[in-house]
Amino acid sequence: MKKLSKNTVYNLSTYGIVIVAYLIVQGIVLAGGLSNQIRGQLVPICVYISLAISLNLVSGVSGELSLGHAGFMSVGAFSGVIVAAALRDSGMGGVPILIISMIVGGVISGIAGLIIGIPVLRLRGDYLAIVTLAFGEIIKNIINNLYVAVDARGLHFSMTSADGFNLSEGGRVVINGPMGATGITKLASFTMGVVLIIFTLFVVLGTINSRHGRAIMAARDNRIAADSVGISVTRCKLLAFTVAAVLAGMAGALYAMNYSTVAAKKFDFNTSILILVFVVLGGMGNIRGSIIAAAILTLLPELLRSVADYRMLVYAIVLILVMLARNSTVLKNYINNVVNGIVSRIKAPFSGRNGGKGGASE
Amino acid sequence: MSVLNNLIGGLSLGSVYAIIALGYTMVYGIAKMLNFAHGDVIMIGGYMCFCAMQYLGLPPVVGILIAMVVCTVLGVLIESLAYRPLRGAPSLAVLITAIGVSYYLQNAALLIWSSNPKSFTSVVALEPIQLAAGRLTVTGEAIVTIIAAVVIMTALTIFTSRTKMGKAMRAVSEDRGAAQLMGININRTISMTFAIGAALAAIAGVLYCSAYPTLSPTTGSLPGIKAFTAAVFGGIGSIPGAMLGGILLGIIEIFSNAYISTQLSDAIVFAVLIIVLLIKPTGLLGKKIREKV
């Protein structure tokens, strides 16, 4: 039998973890063991996990800080909602409509990613970060002023108001400016969320382990060296950026279908930052870390409900402490000393040499 | 005349952005980090002044001083507790910590002052000046803000070019390792930078709230992002750049509000930023860094 490579084992075990987690959670749900609040978080958790994985492709693997990921989520969400509304009376089932709208959301978001990526990726570092932030804000601002309606004659678009549409009978407004999309049919389910995660993993892990993925990482590690061996750095980064935009669009479409209304201001700078926090806490370039961080941090505010008003404060403190514990050498040494101290204290009575005192001198 | 009116409005808003952007740019230049909590220090400054004036009945000048002192202490405290342990850590780790600090400040303010917006009484007692037979109005806030920005900018320029501490700051921003070898106390210099940045944020907070008199725990985030944009616009790390970027951003915002579209003014501001960065990738007055192989 051919021996599996290290990468393949890693990838397969990642899929395995997701599927096992899905089966366990689904089992608990069927047994009625989850509160309504937590159950309501299942789809958002899946959405945030796949967003974190896709952002990891840009920030971790390709090494470019993107502060506008929620913008792509937004493009996907609203194009998905429009498609779903247009198909509502077509007689198709819920799942096909959901899949089609996710695909359309992904494609449109990918086109947006490509258009944005071509000029943006000429910049570097913090300048690139601020431009992605700016694009996120522009997308939010435009969608906030977008009015879309659907009727028997097709789709109607406007940037000023929903009054001038002259809808035929049975027509309705799908996106109503700052009010956002209203009257969405809830099609999302936990199972579809997990399918999305698996698909995202498949695309991202596939990209990382391909020729293109290795080129992307080479460009991240040393731009000039990569350039000089004939890798087109811009094309690599653009590939990562566009793939991530497609995946974020699909996740956004699923997210929107989980609620009856969704407004553009939900997908703001803070949401982009939230996704970035998942990626950084999980470890840059570490796909499994992103999954775990996204799941835990989405649940954390819900689990902290017992401390009510203080929960976001606690969240902030946890975030700072985790960053300090992971990155500060002083704190790391301190923690190691404490741990060693405790270990030697436990060991001491058995070693008999130091008596009961134990020692940090070891 | 409406053009002139808008120009003055833009200058005044731009001056607030400039004062905030100065804080951003100094911290970035010296500590090489994006301090996302800066916007929330603005908010704290606003609340401090509000409390001093509303609850203690102190005069506006004392209110501003209290806000500055509290924010300076806060800035130094944040730096020493949250950022100093991360010196030498990857810049993204510092960025996320700054975001954590920003969440912390917002939620602490939410607990202390609740989410109900407070209406801020302007600290400027000047009557609006009518010029050209009443067709041109200059508010007291606009005059004070513009003067404050010019004074701060001049003072900072003199400070960084003449004083010992200012020179130390420039040295640290140029090359931290070499500065340390020359006997400059890096930690003290960075603390000082944060102190100045936070004091500027307090002034900006008070001026911003005087012009837009509602105060809530999220008041600081939008001007924070705009000022950050302004700092990048002018070339981050450069003091005159921050000033220029802030003022241009304010003028663009007010003009697109007045002549193009009220709803899309934010989009227009950011679009201008993107165009400028594409033409001049390091901002208007940013230094071009040559890459060594």
In short:
Chain A is mostly helical and 362 residues long.
Molecular structure report:
The complex is a heterodimer of chains A (362) and B (293). Chain A is mainly alpha-helical. Chain A has one domain (6-144, 180-327): ABC transporter involved in vitamin B12 uptake, BtuC (Orthogonal Bundle), CATH 1.10.3470. Chain A has helices at residues 6-30, 36-40, 42-61, 69-86, 94-120, 125-143, 190-208, 211-221, 223-228, 233-256, 269-282, 287-303, 311-327, 329-351; strands at 147-151, 154-158, 172-176. In chain A, helix 4 packs antiparallel against helix 5 (94-120). Chain A is globular, with a radius of gyration of 24 Å. Chain B has 293 residues and is mainly alpha-helical. Chain B has one domain: ABC transporter involved in vitamin B12 uptake, BtuC (Orthogonal Bundle), CATH 1.10.3470. In chain B, 72% of the residues lie in helices and 3% in strands. Chain B is built from 11 helices and 4 strands. In chain B, a hairpin with a 4-residue loop joins strand 2 and strand 3 (136-138). In chain B, helix 6 crosses helix 8 (186-211). Chain B starts with a helix and ends in a 14-residue tail after the last helix. The mean pLDDT of chain B is 88. Chain A binds chain B through residues 59, 65, 119-120, 122-124, 126-127, 129-131, 133-135, 137-138, 141-142, 144-145, 224, 269, 273, 276-277, 280-281, 284, 309-310, 312-313, 315-317, 319-320, 323-324, 326-331, and chain B through 28, 34, 82, 85-86, 88-90, 92-93, 95-97, 99-101, 103-104, 106-108, 110-111, 221, 225, 228-229, 232, 236, 263-264, 266-267, 270-271, 273-274, 277-278, 281-283, 291, 293.
Order of helices and strands of chain B: HHHHEEEHHHHEHHH
Unreliable stretches of chain A (pLDDT < 50, length at least 5) are 354-362
Strand order of the largest sheet of chain B: 1-4
Fraction of residues in helix of chain B = over 70%
Mean pLDDT of chain B: 88
Give the spatial strand order of the biggest sheet of chain A.
2-1-3
SS summary, helix count of chain B: 11
Strand content of chain B: under 5%
Radius of gyration computed on alpha carbons of chain A: 24 Å
Biggest sheet features of chain B: 2 strands, antiparallel
Q: How confident is the prediction overall: mean pLDDT of chain A?
A: 84
Contiguous runs where pLDDT drops below 50 for at least 5 residues of chain B: none
Give a quick account of the main beta sheet of chain A: strands, pairing sense, barrel closure: 3 strands, antiparallel
Supply the number of structural domains of chain A: 1
Q: Please identify the structural class of chain A as seen in this structure.
A: mainly alpha
User: Which two chains share the most extensive interface?
Assistant: A-B, 46 and 44 residues
Instruction: Describe the oligomeric state of these chains in a short phrase.
Output: heterodimer
Helix/strand order of chain A, N-terminal first: HHHHHHEEEHHHHHHHH
* CATH architectural designation of chain B: Orthogonal Bundle
